[in-house]
Amino acid sequence: MSSKSIVPQLAYVLHSRPYRETSALVDFITPQGRLRAVLRNARGKAGTLARPFVPLEIEFHGRGELKNVGRMESAGVSTWLNGEALFSGLYLNELLVRLLPAEDPHPAVFDHYAATLLALAEGRPLEPLLRAFEWRLLDDLGYSFSLTEDIHGGPIEADGLYRLQVDAGLERVWLLQPGLFNGVELLAMAQADWSATGALSAAKRLMRQALAVHLAGKPLASRELFRKP
User: Fold this and answer.
1) Which pLDDT score, from 0 to 100, does residue 218 have?
2) SS3 breakdown of the chain: % helix, strand, coil, rounded to 5?
């Protein structure tokens, strides 16, 4: 009786922690989604290869939610990140571990993640890359909202003030209050026009508000790295 052939998958390590005596429990991102698997002999050659930002080709074994890593090989050139680019990569990894459902295919997220790592390694400006990744992730998971229309279907006005109603969209308000967004900033975000005054800082605030509810109030540890001197 022949067994079904196992197709290798492209993958990156998102997070790893010790498991039992010599193994590791590893979260991977693949085109088929986030997979958690046991890596045997994590202190040997396999553990050296299974590092963040290294493109891998892996055979996963097992039908349950917890897989086993079989054959694992390098699938390309490792992405070397330093300084704030490294912190940014770790931030992306933590976002994916926290937000991506297990074994739920998101090939577009995988492709955008790989492209963002390369852009970070090339030294491109961090903030536009991070905001674009956050937005694309929210969109692919079904959590995005319009940046050109409010929750009532009206157009975002450049001179208007708006607040985010999470899981609904942007609502125009007429009284000043904390956490509002200028219409001109929102329209710049919709066009990814980061040269517009205040657009990047407003995008950072907007993404934090949009992500917070999906992080269930638990802060991201990787954000603390940016605050350290």
Assistant:
1) 81
2) 35, 25, 40
* CB within 8 Å of 44: residues ≥ 6 apart: none
* Cα–Cα distance measured from residue 88 to residue 223, given in angstroms and rounded to the nearest whole number: 9
160: Cα separation from own chain's centroid: 30
Mean pLDDT for each 10-residue chunk of the chain (229 residues)?
A: 67 91 91 93 70 92 88 84 94 96 94 96 95 96 95 96 92 92 96 93 95 86 67
Please list, in sequence order, all residues whose beta carbon lies within 8 angstroms of the beta carbon of residue 48, skipping any fewer than 6 positions away. Answer: none
Residues ≥6 apart with Cβ < 8 Å to 39: 16, 19, 23, 24, 25, 26, 46, 47, 50, 69, 72
Distance of CA 86 to the CA centre of its chain: 14
In the prediction, which pLDDT does 45 show? 61
**Measured between alpha carbons, how far is 96 from 119 in angstroms, rounded to an integer?**
18
Element holding 45 (H helix, E strand): helix 45-49
**Main-chain phi, psi angles of 172, to 5 degrees:** -75, 140
- pLDDT for residue 44: 66
What CA–CA distance (Å, rounded) separates 109 from 222? 20
Tokens 């992080």 -> residue: 215
- The CA distances from residue 104 to 29, 30, 65, 97, 119, in Å, are 10, 10, 11, 12, 26
| Closest to 222 (Cα-Cα) out of 130, 154, 147, 146 | 130
Cα 161 from Cα 177, distance rounded (Å):
10
